[in-house]
Amino acid sequence: MSRRWRIRVYGVVQGVGFRPFVYVLAQRFGVSGYVRNDPEGVEVEAEGEGGTLEAFLRALREEAPPLSRVEGVDVEELPPLGTKGFVIRRSEGEGDSKVLVPPDVATCPDCIREIFDPSDRRYRYPFTNCTRCGPRYTIILGLPYDRPNTTMRKFRMCPECRREYEDPSDRRFHAQPIACPECGPELVLADGHGRSLDRDPISEAARVLLQGRIVAIKGLGGFHLACDATDEEAVRRLRERKGREGKPLAVMVRDLRAARELAEVLKEEEKLLSSPRAPIVLLKKKGGLAEGISPGLSTYGLMLPYTPLHHLLLREVGRPLVMTSGNVSGEPICYRNEEALEKLGGVADYFLLHDRDVHARCDDSVVRVVVGREVVLRRSRGYVPEPVGLPARSRVPILACGGFLKNSFCLVRGDRAFLGPHIGDMEGPDVVRAFEEGVDNMKRIFGINPEAFAHDLHPDYPTTRYASEQDGEKVPVQHHHAHIASVMAEGGLEGPVVGVALDGTGYGEDGTVWGGEFLLAEKGWYRRVGHIALARMPGGEMAVKEPWRMALAHLYRVFGEDFLDWELPFLSYVDDRNLFVRMLDRGLASPLTSSAGRLFDAVSAVLGVHPGPVSYEGQAAMELEAVAEDVEGGYRFEVIKDGDMWVVEPEPFWRVLLEDLREGTSVPSASGKFHRGLAEAVVEVCARVKEETGVRDVVLSGGVFQNVRLLKATFRLLEGKGFRVHTNSRVPPNDGGICLGQALVATYILGG
């Protein structure tokens, strides 16, 4: 008996070859009807025998394309019509969009094979793609995801591309970015003044790169600045022009074999490198690149080519290439040709440009493997705009604005949180504009109009000001509570949990600068139950930029003025010792902080690892981690009860450390003991809180937990004590993840 079903499929089902898949499936089962995109996902009407329809539906769920993600299927029984044949219909237009937009995807093996096959019509064509790969989020103007709603709409398909596009047996069947040399985007190489050079763009770009020149390359979500990663002088010149003094530079290598020559690549790291997301992966370095790539650190950030242009260029150059964000330090990544020529004219010698517009800027993602699992440190290309499910459902649409450093934002509808791409530090008007553009773009794509706005407590953050200017309810969220809530959102945790937020700085509710916090958290509520002992920050924000200031404050707190006469190298940075003593005694321009990040800075300075000015956030702490060696036991921190608060007191640690240094203990050993000792102190506080509350779930978050040595030690010690340990994975533990935590807290506060 014939039956007819209307099947609605929800999830990542547009831009991933889902309609062609359904069409082929219908042919296989002899089902008639149609498939089309609509604002909610994919709609299928299928008519056939009852058993056949059930088999068709089962295959639709179980055999979906690899890049798709089916999150829901609804089936409605309809009267049979006796239709014959199966077709792909034109997409439905406007509506309340509930479809999930796919991220940009690295070039698939079939397309790579074609661009290196001299007999293929796409031989050496740098914009080759199919339904399994290529640009997605960065070219989408609106939904449904069809060519007229992308930046490819200005390229009229040639007859051969049209044939592939309309052939159900072709893997380019309804591939919206389909292109070829006859009808698609074109690549040009221009000089520093934007004048096009009449030469083969890829071959000439490879030639000048090998000569030590810097080339700005337009990619999927914006520009890269590229140079030979083995050329010390080229790397130095790039740093000087870009204004990036010491921060590590990402490097693109030709293949996994090249990656293994430069770094240790474990199985999980190999999977990440070669995955369709193609992120930058932090790997333990062996060497082989210019010293200026990651000075003072033990890792390289490596990635594989993820566009045809990258594959062609890396094959021709034959060497690893720096592929750092195409911007001047402190500004957002450039993503338009005219913008790049203007902003990067003083940095790049040449520009590799094309005429496929980037609609949404989207920088490279950064990940690393910790305790056998992926941890995203910068969430952008390849991950955005995939949603994160929340353990509660919001009754109103929410925009969570994030923080100041490593900013990202988050839109919430129902129980889904859509994180935007990495924006960067909100230091200037151009970055604020990039934030606003990103918010507006995602609001338009997903059809989400926020009625409530979550933001940090800090009144001077640009994101706080932005939230205050919007029409709707405002939900302030404490910075470290947001860190803990981000893990709870990822893990579907309602609480209660013991949250350990080890971070740089955050606005505290008691007027001090927080950053080493122990919180009891549950369903949008928290109570502070502990912290690292308070120390002064002489000079306020200057103490963040000059680690010797925190060393001075911590040692003065323990030893008074006695240590000023000791032979400690960092003291050479102190010009007027009496002035600093007065500042610390009276609290002049020296706010109190519990910051774990500032404690790391102090230790780095005292050990002589990095006492002087830093050129990027966390530099002193990262270099301290890089020199540390494995040790059996750690320096002891005292855990004391002060009223209703557990306090991690570092005084015993400082006394033993200084004694060890006088007796000749090595810096690597001392650094290792510090890391281990702090981990042991964290575990002790968690144990004390568990005794008081019975809570066995511990959440670890905050930028300091990007430190793999500290995270591993803390994780394993907690598990050894019987705790259930939860960490960030899909969103960063640094401030790039706090928008998700803000979103969850706001959801509960607003009645989720």
Descriptive keywords:
752 residues, alpha/beta, Alpha-Beta Plaits, DHBP synthase, twelve-stranded mixed beta sheet, seven-stranded mixed beta sheet, 22 helices, 32% helix
Description:
The protein has 22 helices and 32 strands. By secondary structure, it is an alpha/beta fold. The strands form five sheets. Strands 6, 7, 8, 9, 10, 11, 12, 13, 14, 15, 16 and 17 form a twelve-stranded mixed beta sheet that branches. Strands 29-30-26-25-24-31-32 form a seven-stranded mixed beta sheet, with helices on both faces. Strands 18-21-20-19-22-23 form a six-stranded mixed beta sheet, sandwiched between helices. Helix 17 crosses helix 18 (619-627). The longest helix has 27 residues, at 667-693. The radius of gyration is 27 Å and the shape is globular. 55% of the residues are buried.
Global morphology: globular
Q: Write the CATH architecture name of the domain at 187-354.
A: Alpha-Beta Complex
Mean pLDDT across the residues is 95
* CATH-defined topology of the domain at 187-354: DHBP synthase
Q: Distance between the terminal alpha carbons, to the nearest Å? A: 46 Å
Helix fraction by DSSP (H/I, runs of at least 4): 25-40%
CATH first level of the domain at 187-354: Alpha Beta
